[in-house]
Amino acid sequence: MNARTLSTFFYRRPTFYLLLLLAPPLLWLGTAYLGTLFALLTQSIYSIDEFTAQIVRTPTLATYRQLFTQPANLDIVLRTLTMAICVTIAAAFIAFPIANYMVRYASPATRAAFYVAILVPMWASYLVKVYAWRLILAKEGILNWMFEAAGAEGVLAAILQIPGIGGPSLASSYIGMFIVFVYMWLPYMILPIAAALERVPASLLQASADLGARPRQTLRSVVLPLVTPGLAAGSVFTFSLTLGDYIIPSIVGAPGYFIGMMVYQQQGTAGNIPLAAAFSVVPIVLIGVYLALVKRLGAFDAM
Question: For FRET with 143, which of 206, 214, 240, 277 sits at 20 to 30 Å CA-CA?
């Protein structure tokens, strides 16, 4: 069969040609991703023998009962969920003014500089950025020095004394962890919002002004409803990435466990694979629920 005959064969059968092209990536996705995910979920319905530390491969809900009845485990889930929600809200409040300035007010050269400033840090090593922030937030770090130079060390000390989120230093507090999370995921919020703002017709803003609306009214009644899909799309990234991260909580912040840290510890040091798998199911369920909510806001249309 020569090349022309083969080309004609595929041309007359576009569906078969499409399936042939999709077969390798779908096979890889089904085996490497869905297969391992299914194996992980399967482990969660097993239990571990407390005396022999061997996995009992009998289907049971004992591991989930342990996960949701022990207060320490519930604290880990609530701590992680609270951090993910706070990071998402903060990233949205910070990202919107930046994206709005980039799209509406910045010159082409300034806009290009903003995009470079947002994208270039994403190319740097993840661990390097986290350890750099640990040095910045340390007790002898540059941020602490800036507070002292401004004569505001009392303000920093008062912040670090807040129960539940404070600590000996920013590098050893949930406040510092929150700052690092927001910094790491902020580009994932800025870019979808900027893309959504670029799709807002300038004629709508002009019409709103012609009808007597003030800038604040235009923002609330015209811009925000049209940018909501971009906000929702960005929140998918910030929420899910915070929910599953274990490196930042391991390096920066107070000594409290997060879901990702528990999965890493239980499947590694502790060797409790069923409990690690059960912890892994929690973010999957939470992200699934969150995706169902943001889908109504048009998040998938803005991606």
Answer: 240
